[in-house]
Design a protein that fits this description.
Elements (H helix, E strand, L loop, with lengths): L2 E5 L5 E4 L3 E5 L17 E9 L4 E7 L3 E8 L1 E6 L4 E5 L2 E6 L4 E7 L6 E8 L9 E6 L10 E5 L7 E2 L5 E7 L4 E5 L5 E9 L1 E4 L2 E4 L3 E5 L3 E6 L4 E9 L2
Parallel strand pairs: 13-14
Antiparallel strand pairs: 1-20, 2-3, 3-4, 4-11, 5-10, 6-9, 6-11, 7-8, 7-10, 9-12, 13-15, 15-22, 16-21, 17-20, 17-22, 18-19, 18-21
Length: about 240
């Protein structure tokens, strides 16, 4: 029998710094809930909105796999590896912090907000050489399918990280039903609704709701409205 945990959007931690508004699915910075520290290897899921021209100054990370997924606007990235890039809606960016990196992230535009997901995953190898990668996801490729956008394999579809994790994104028509099969025994999936609404295993999820599912080999999801979009994050539970 599968196990589930439902996190409704309005139960998330909140932070308002003026230039930054952030919702935290799991404990982060000033938000601490001992019942919501992580979901398996998924440590951070932040839903950030950054005002025009503002951003995160240069700061360090180590031994964490960091994934950024812009939802609106343009995010300017700069890091100590020499990477300078702008990522926008449809892109996915990964950094393996490993032995240590420094980076900054700014809203490239002065006149509009940038919204993005910041995701941290515990790695399965410590002190790796830091690395950076990004890719663009075409809208038509994720229509009514679960498109793989991240995996542990550099030769597989999408970007890759140092963890037995797989991410899939789907943008679905109303009534579309899709099956998801767990890639690795012992993994669980954290489903996060980006827009619209879905039914997963009889549970109704609206925009920005999250559902963790584990102790199962597969599950079914159904879109309740046209253009509903979902992110599935499969991660080891131990």
């Amino acid at each position: 029998m599968s196990k589930t945990i439902l996190h409704k959007a309005d139960t998330r931690g909140k932070a308002d710094h003026g230039w930054l508004k952030s919702f935290h699915t799991f404990s982060f910075a000033g938000y601490h809930d001992p019942q919501r520290m992580h979901f398996g290897a998924l440590r951070v899921l932040n839903d950030d909105t950054v005002h025009g021209g503002m951003g995160f100054g240069t700061h360090p990370h180590d031994n964490m796999e960091i994934i950024s997924i812009p939802l609106e606007g343009d995010l300017q990235h700069r890091d100590s590896m020499g990477n300078v890039a702008v990522i926008k809606k449809g892109d996915i960016q990964v950094m393996s912090a490993g032995t240590g990196i420094q980076h900054s992230e700014y809203n490239k535009n002065a006149d509009e907000a940038v919204k993005f997901l910041q995701i941290w995953i515990f790695p399965n190898k410590r002190n790796v050489t830091p690395r950076y990668d990004q890719m663009t996801i075409r809208e038509e490729d994720k229509r009514d399918v679960l498109l793989q956008v991240l995996s542990p394999d550099p030769n597989d579809a999408g970007v890759w990280i140092h963890q037995d994790a797989w991410f899939h994104i789907g943008n679905c028509s109303a009534g579309k039903t899709l099956e998801y099969s767990i890639k690795k025994t012992g993994n669980g999936v954290y489903a996060f609704v980006l827009s619209g609404s879905f039914n997963i295993e009889g549970l109704e999820l609206d925009s920005r709701d999250g559902l963790g599912i584990w102790d199962t080999e597969e599950f079914t999801l159904r879109s309740n409205s046209d253009g509903s979009e979902i992110l599935l994050m499969e991660v080891p539970m131990r």
